[in-house]
Write a structure and sequence with these properties.
Blueprint: H1 8-19, H2 31-41, H3 44-54, E1 60-64, E2 67-73, H4 83-88, E3 96-98, H5 100-106, H6 112-122, E4 130-132, H7 135-141, E5 148-150, H8 153-158, H9 162-174
Antiparallel strand pairs: 1-2, 1-3, 4-5
Helix pairs in contact: 1-2
Length: 179
């Protein structure tokens, strides 16, 4: 009949991405696989544009240490669940950690390096983020508008002990160039 299945690119750009602009509930479960597959197929010069289009979409699965309930969120709000970060955020149990094992199970083992690169480009990080100090804190503490903080540091310092001191030293010394 001459009707062919739409290309993966057409499916993503013409169906999936426009659905995120509506207030209608959407099933995002198949989107990760399509986004990842397209990322692998993308020409190098197209990758940045593609990542820019999807990085603010709420399609990544995560949970917080305090809760086994699974949520979907944006990469910029989610951390990679490595032992150092888990220890860093032990005192901040509402921190969002990617369900990395689920994603590793979704892709071939040979694609694990590509998966990690994809997640990194989306904005999933393996170190505490630098955050703007919230507006509510400006009024309370007379902090300037351009002050920053390291996510989880205040909570860690409040409950510092030998173990947390080692985590603090390791994380800051390894990532000092970022801060």
């Amino acid at each position: 009949f001459g009707v062919k299945k739409p290309s993966l690119r057409d499916d993503i750009y013409n169906k999936i991405l426009p659905a995120y602009k509506t207030n209608i509930a959407i099933d995002t479960s198949p989107h990760f696989n399509k986004f990842f597959r397209y990322f692998k197929e993308c020409r190098n010069e197209e990758v940045a544009e593609f990542i820019g289009l999807i990085k603010d979409k709420t399609f990544l699965r995560y949970n917080a240490t305090e809760d086994d309930k699974v949520f979907r969120g944006k990469a910029k709000d989610i951390y990679l669940p490595n032992p150092d970060l888990k220890a860093w955020f032990e005192t901040k149990p509402d921190t969002n950690f990617l369900l990395l094992d689920e994603y590793r199970e979704m892709v071939d083992e040979k694609d694990h390096a590509n998966l990690m690169k994809f997640l990194e480009l989306l904005g999933i990080v393996s170190f505490p983020r630098i955050m703007d100090v919230g507006h509510d804190q400006y009024r309370r503490k007379q902090i300037s508008d351009n002050d920053k903080k390291i996510d989880g540091l205040e909570e860690l310092l409040i409950q510092i002990d030998d173990k947390k001191s080692k985590v603090l030293w390791k994380m800051l010394s390894e990532k000092w160039n970022i801060y």
